[in-house]
Amino acid sequence: MVCETKIVAAEDHEALPGAKKDALLAAAGAMWPPLPAAPGPAAAPPAPPPAPVAQPRGGAGGAGPPGGRGLCIREFRATEQEAARRIFYDGIMERIPNTAFRGLRQHPRAQLLYALLAALCFAVSRSLLLTCLVPAALLGLRYYYSRKVIRAYLECALHTDMADIEQYYMKPPGSCFWVAVLDGNVVGIVAARAHEEDNTVELLRMSVDSRFRGKGIAKALGRKVLEFAVVHNYSAVVLGTTAVKVAAHKLYESLGFRHMGASDHYVLPGMTLSLAERLFFQVRYHRYRLQLREE
């Protein structure tokens, strides 16, 4: 996760000649086959034929507008600022318990330290009750510091690029921001930011409303960034994540990304690096890359 953003990236999305752009889009379609349409509610079983009753014209049983229930991935509009910020905020806040509790499994040194603290407590107090309270206290401290750091990161993000999406992503060349719209509601977001020094595009800010997950929306958003990179002739798409959930990593791999390594020494924006923070907050930063063409 990155908070301070140096934007280098494409305002004119029609810069390529038509024939070349069509060829690149065709290549993108071959690499990432189209997703099936978002599933709607299950069709009800056919009802028995109704009695011949006269129906008033223009009644409540009339058909809705065509195409009203489809999933649409399109460019961000300024009126969707608050909806995008809400989805981003909710997605990051979900990481607090995941980082505090599930993330502990990724850090054996922290587990060993906590076990030694519990053993030391028993050696000093000779109290089983007090010793049993030590793990609960340590997990409570992990939750407190995870919440503290992640909220500080959110404050930073919400006052930089997510404070004005139009300015940070839609105006600079090489950057873009998309929303997933389902039934007229914004249900997902993703951004792309170009790095001209190595001709790559970074995928970031991907999040889907928790009520609409499991419908292939995140994969559709990811493919939009990949198509953007192909059309604009970038050599690779990169991303970094501190996500703990296995599902997030499987999503990146299903899009064709390769895991390039992980680091336990990543400094998240908002961290103070105090001793207490080092003891009770740890994240593992994963790097992914999808090579589109060789330079």
Distance between the termini: 27 Å
Radius of gyration: 24 Å
Overall body shape: elongated
Proportion in β-strands: 15-25%
| DSSP strand count | 7
| Biggest β-sheet: strands ordered side by side in the sheet | 1-2-3-4-5-7-6
Structural commentary:
The protein has helices at 18-31, 81-93, 95-100, 108-125, 128-158, 165-170, 217-231, 246-254, 275-280; strands spanning 71-75, 175-182, 185-195, 200-208, 236-241, 258-263, 285-291. The chain has 295 residues and is an alpha+beta fold. The protein has a seven-stranded mixed β-sheet with strand order 1-2-3-4-5-7-6. Strand 2 (175-182) and strand 3 form a beta hairpin. Helix 1 packs antiparallel against helix 7 (217-231), helix 2 packs antiparallel against helix 5 and helix 4 (108-125) runs antiparallel to helix 5. The longest helix has 31 residues, at 128-158. It is elongated. It starts with 17 loop residues before the first helix and ends with a strand.
Question: Which properties best describe this structure?
Answer:
295 residues; alpha+beta; seven-stranded mixed beta sheet; elongated
SSE layout:
Blueprint: H1 18-31, E1 71-75, H2 81-93, H3 95-100, H4 108-125, H5 128-158, H6 165-170, E2 175-182, E3 185-195, E4 200-208, H7 217-231, E5 236-241, H8 246-254, E6 258-263, H9 275-280, E7 285-291
Parallel strand pairs: 4-5
Antiparallel strand pairs: 1-2, 2-3, 3-4, 5-7, 6-7
Short description:
This protein is an alpha+beta fold. It has nine helices and seven strands, in the order H-E-H-H-H-H-H-E-E-E-H-E-H-E-H-E.
